Amino acid sequence: MNILEDAIDIAKKNKVATIVIASTTGDTALKLFEVAKGVKFKLIVVTHDEGKPMQEKRFKEDIRRLLLANHVTVYTHNPRAILLRKISSVIFERLGLPTWHKHLRQIREKFGAGIKVCHIIVHMLIEGNILRDERVMAIAGKKSGADSIAIFLIKPRNKRPILEKVITRP
C-alpha cells in the first residue's frame, strides 16, 4: 500500500471527512483523486502558484480543470496575505512575541519538513476561510510527492491549526 491509499484508510478509521493535500504540479493531487474515487471525502488541493504569471505556474492546467470538474477544491493562497504575515512576524519577533515562523521551526524540528508543510497548507486554508470548524487530514511531503500525514482540529477561535495526530512522517 502507498501513502495515499493509507491516507484514505486512516481518514475512514478516524472519521475525517475532509482531506487536504499539497501539490506543486498537480500530479500528487491527481493520484489522490484517483485513489479516493467512489469514497465520500471532501478533497482540497493547495498549490503555491500564488501571484505568478500564467507562464510560470507549475500546477498543470489540465489537472486543475479535471479536479474542478469533479468538485475538488483547488486553492491558491492570496499573495497579499503571505506578505502581511511576513510583516507581522517581523514586528512580533522584535516585540518578543510568539510568531508563526518560530512555531513552524519547532514543528519541523520535532516532526520533520512534511508535517511542517501540512501545518502550512491547513493554516492557509484557515486564513482563506475555506476551513472553519472541523477535523481535517493533511497530506504533504518534503520536496515532491507525499510522505507525511497528520490530522488537525480546526476551531473558529484559533488562528492556527491544532495538531491532533501525526500519522506518518519520513
Task: Walk me through this protein's architecture.
- Helix content is 42%, strand content 21%.
- It contains six helices and six strands.
- Strands 3-2-1-4-5-6 form a six-stranded mixed β-sheet, with helices on both faces.
- Strand 2, helix 3 and strand 3 (73-76) form a beta-alpha-beta unit.
- Helix 5 (100-111) runs antiparallel to helix 6.
Fold topology:
Elements: H1 3-13, E1 18-22, H2 27-35, E2 42-47, H3 61-69, E3 73-76, H4 79-94, H5 100-111, H6 113-127, E4 134-140, E5 148-154, E6 162-168
Parallel strand pairs: 1-2, 1-4, 2-3
Antiparallel strand pairs: 4-5, 5-6
Helix pairs in contact: 5-6
Largest sheet: 6 strands, mixed
SSE order: HEHEHEHHHEEE
- The proportion of residues forming helix, as a percent range, comes to 40-55%
Cα-to-Cα separation, first versus last residue: 16 Å
Short account of what is shown:
By secondary structure, the protein is α/β, with parallel strands linked by helices.
Defining traits:
170 residues, 6-stranded mixed sheet, single chain, alpha/beta, globular
